[in-house]
Amino acid sequence: MITVGAFAENTFFLRKRDEKEVLIIDPGDESARIIQLIEDRGWNPVAVVNTHGHIDHICAVQDLKEKYGIEFYLHSDDLPLVKEAPLHASLFGLAPPRVPEMDHDLAGLSTLSLAGMTMELRHTPGHSPGSVTFVLPGRVISGDVLFQSSIGRTDLPGGDFDILMNAIRTQLLPLPDETIVHCGHGPETTIGEERRSNPFITGEAGPG
């Protein structure tokens, strides 16, 4: 994982141990830095796979698609967010990103097999309509659904607090307590830690 861009977004690289094929997950920005890391490690990217389509998670996608001739996987409910990325950039005073085209739709899929690995996909909307959590043995990549002691924002277009909390309770909290949560921003945590102390889960915090 490396942290990139103005929003300090976590970009992940997923591969089998001792293998060169790698998935790039949520390349949010700083494509040159991402490419340099890939080249330094001698990795072979096979796809870009995103948890969701907000601007801070997609700004390096097109550069990586072109550099490595790879395809982009996204839940189609988030396509409007990707297409509106230049507008969202202007609202934050940022340069407009290159808008990537989605090549493969994650909607309706329960698993995804790439780079010799199979991930379980769980649709976890609420932060965005098409947010997806990737579940692997002992760990999840949650995008902006669940954070250490917090949850994803729901005041952005397509956000809904009640939908997000339902997704967390039905799709994430049933996982074992020791499951590591790799978040889209900030440090990793565990399901058990969030079950015990996250104020949104314990009921001490609410929308707004």
Question: How would you describe this protein?
Answer:
It contains 8 helices and 14 strands. The protein is of the alpha/beta class. The protein has a single domain (2-202), classed as Metallo-beta-lactamase, Chain A (4-Layer Sandwich). A 6-stranded mixed sheet has the order 1-2-3-4-5-6. The longest helix is centred in the last third of the chain and has 12 residues, at 161-172. The chain starts with a strand and ends in a 6-residue tail after the last helix. The model has no long low-confidence stretch (mean pLDDT 96).
Task: Describe how the helices and strands are arranged.
Blueprint: E1 2-4, E2 9-14, E3 21-25, H1 31-41, E4 44-49, H2 55-58, H3 61-68, E5 71-74, H4 79-83, H5 85-91, E6 104-105, E7 111-114, E8 117-123, E9 132-136, E10 139-143, E11 146-147, E12 150-151, H6 161-172, E13 180-183, E14 189-190, H7 191-197, H8 199-202
Parallel strand pairs: 3-4, 4-5, 5-6, 10-13
Antiparallel strand pairs: 1-2, 2-3, 7-8, 8-9, 9-10, 11-12, 13-14
Give the full name of the CATH homologous superfamily: Ribonuclease Z/Hydroxyacylglutathione hydrolase-like
Spatial shape: globular
Strand numbers in spatial order across the main sheet: 1-2-3-4-5-6
**SS content category:** alpha/beta
In the CATH scheme, the class would be Alpha Beta
**Total separate domains:** 1
User: How much of the sequence is in beta strands?
Assistant: 25-35%
Summarize the structure.
By secondary structure, the chain is an alpha/beta fold.
